Amino acid sequence: MKRFHWVYFLLTLLILAVELYIAGCTHDAIIRPYGGDYLCVIFLYTLIRTFWNLPVRPLALWIFAFACFVEVTQYFHLADRLGFTKPSFIRTLMGYTFTWVDIGCYALGIGTVLILERLINQNATLRTS
Length: 129
What we know:
This protein is mostly helical. The protein has one domain. It has helices spanning 6-25, 31-51, 56-75, 78-81, 89-94, 100-128. The radius of gyration is 16 Å and the shape is elongated.
C-alpha cells in the first residue's frame, strides 16, 4: 500500500503554501478563520495519499473524525491543561476555541475531497471504457 504519488504531493505543497499565506498574510473575518479549517482536512488527505494508497471514503472519514477530535479538545481547553501557552507552534496546531462552524468547515472540506475523488474516478473509468 505504500507508494509515492506526485500529483498528491504537488497538491499537498500547493495547499501548504496557501495555508501559510492565510496564516501569515490574511487578517480578515472569513478566509483566515474558515478557509484555513476548510483546507486543513484537504491538506491532511493529500498528504496521506501522497505516501499511501488507501481507500478514499474510509480515509476521508478518519480525517474528518480526527479533525472533530481536535476540535473537541479545544472545547475542553486541552492545550491550556497541558501547559501550552500562546503563542506556540503546538498551541496553534491544537487550536484555541471550539466552534461548530469549524466542524462545518471540516465537513465541507471532506465533502469536497469525496466529490473530487468521485469525479476523477469516473473520468478515469470513462477513459478506459
